[in-house]
From TrEMBL:
InterPro entries: Cation_efflux, Cation_efflux_CTD, Cation_efflux_CTD_sf, Cation_efflux_TM, Cation_efflux_TMD_sf, CDF/SLC30A. Residues 3-187 form the Cation efflux protein transmembrane domain. This is Cation efflux integral membrane protein. The gene is czcD. Residues 207-263 form the Cation efflux protein cytoplasmic domain. NCBIfam families: CDF.
Amino acid sequence: MIRILICFSLITASLLITSIFANSALLFTEFIHSLVDLIPIAFAFYALRIIDRIDSKYTYGLHRLEIVSSLFNIFTVVAGSVFSVYISTVELIEGSRGDFLLVLISSSIALSLSLVASTDKSEEGRVSGSKLHAIQDSLAYILAVISSLLIIIMKIYFIDPVSAYILNGVLVITSLSPLKFSYNILMEKSPIDTKSVETELQSIFPQVHHIHVWSICDHLNVATLHVRENPDLTLRELDKKREYAEKVLREKFGITHVTIQFEANNKKERLEKI
């Protein structure tokens, strides 16, 4: 994890510095791209140490920090892309020419560091996601290397802003899915079909109802449900059924935290009163 963080930090810093001197819209867009990846990686490095910390105020831990990080990341994409498109448009209209040898060198260094990051041997879920980011970024740096080579050899300078437009488009498109996911979590949308959950649980609790499922973050799903049961059942019998229901929810639906509210089925008593 540390190797990935160091590589992305070096990439971001080098692209920021060289984009200032190279006067290249594409290189600035690469900087935005690397910054957008560095933010969640730095967050993951920090969050892995505190995210499961539970106290009397944060009873589920600090998992929602992932959503805060994601939304901040999306804001960075939007703000950076708007500025990058502005720079690209000015460059396209005025025909400004940057130092594309510097672009080539900087992109090659970024590509090398990105490939180093992608070879990290860690197996943790969040780290695997960072490695995937590194592989995807390598494709963007390859685009920059090819574009700068074409500009140096063929002197076709509009390739730079056009490539920046393409990279900005990729940035925005790839941000749509995280935005939708973050919105769904904040709105407490059920990550699974509750009807399927109800059908599965009816074999254990025939009178299960009021099923609610939502996500705390991308890897923590919770559920609450009500169950009408025979009031003559012992606590031990109910507990065995509860344990089996929790196992089903965990293995089939990925629900790791369940609260079950039991209610006495007084149908027999109501019939006797009638």
